[in-house]
Structure formats: C-alpha cells, structure tokens
Carboxypeptidase regulatory-like domain-containing protein (Nocardioides flavus), 228 residues
Amino acid sequence: MSTRLAVRACTAGLLGMTSLGVVPPATARDTVATTTVAEAEASKVDFGEVVDVTLDVDGEDGFSPTEGTSTLYARKATSSTWEAVATNSSASLDFLDVRPRMTTTYKVVYNGHEADATSGDDSYARSESAPFTVEVARTITRPRGGFEVSGRVRPRYAGRAIVVRVSAERRGGFTRFRKLRTDRRGRYSIVLPRRGGVWYWSFVVKADQSYAGTRFKWRTWVSPERAR
C-alpha cells in the first residue's frame, strides 16, 4: 500500500469513529400556551371572614401543567398597585383562607415553567387570570332585644353615621327617624320610643369606597294601653 493510500485509509477510519461517537443533545420540545382561571368561593364577606380562591391552569395541549408556581395578587380598593399575597408550590393549587381587610380585587398569575433542555419535556408559558373582586362588608353588633339598642361598627367607623328608619310594615314603608353618630371606637347607642303596636326599625351603615354597607332590622311591640 502506498503512503498516500495509507493516509487516506487512516483518515477515513478516524472520520468513521468520530461520526459514531457524536450524539445530538436533547432539547425541550415546545413552549405550550396556558390559560389560568381563578375565582373566589364568595363575592362578598363580612369583615374578618376568609375566602378560598379556586385555581385551574390548563395548557393548550390539553394537559394541566404540574410544574411551576402560581402567585395570588391583590389590589385594595384604596390602591392602584398590585401586591403579591401568596405563592403556591404547584401550578393549580388553590389558595385557602384568604382574608381581605377591605374590598379587594384579586388575580392569579401562573409563572410558567421552562423545561430542562435534557428532559425532552414541553415548557409552559406564563398566563394570568381575569381580575375578580371580593366585597368586604362592615359588621355591626346589637343586643338581643329591648328598647335600648347599642353596639359597635367595625372596622374604623369613628364619628360616622348610622341612619335609623322606622315603619309599621315589616318589608316596606320605612321613613327616616334619626341619624346617629358613633364614638371614637365606633360604638353607638339609642333608646327607641315606646310606640303602641308593632314597629320595625332599620339600622343602616352606608357603603363607601373601602367597604360594603350593612344593616339590621329591629322589632318593638307595646300594647296600646302601655304606650307613651
């Protein structure tokens, strides 16, 4: 064998060995678009109550991603800024016992998931839910019976109004009787007149930007001969 042929043979052999030893790297296949749907179990709660937020994250490939995290964001009625409230360790894990301190709008952001290039799995794109609002109503306490009615409005209701209305009918015909003012701790007190017959009283705390309103009805009865 000539020297030239020997060189060619060696070169061919080395090329053949190299081509057998190279394995193309694995890569993630696709980035799948996702849809995030979130909602609260109740659209209105009393101050101090909690609400659960259910969550569903779906990929356009028909599967729900299990990888990646989801974050709950809140925007209070008095703010224009979104704040992160909680982050779950799984894509579609619900948010439990969320406690809004005032009327609050929420949304959930699925943060997406980038698959390891060596796994061959799909990656999932970020998505966020439509915003949804939970109204928070103020609370008002009162006694169980009697003509002396007192209690407290919460939260932060110092020096503000409670409108008292009265009617001889249970479901309508109410007219304004008096406007009360709470003290610095949100407490109120009134002694109702002993009118003859049955009377219905409505105590109304109006809504504002931060809180939904609240109310309760009160019933008094005095026999005509004892009325004064």
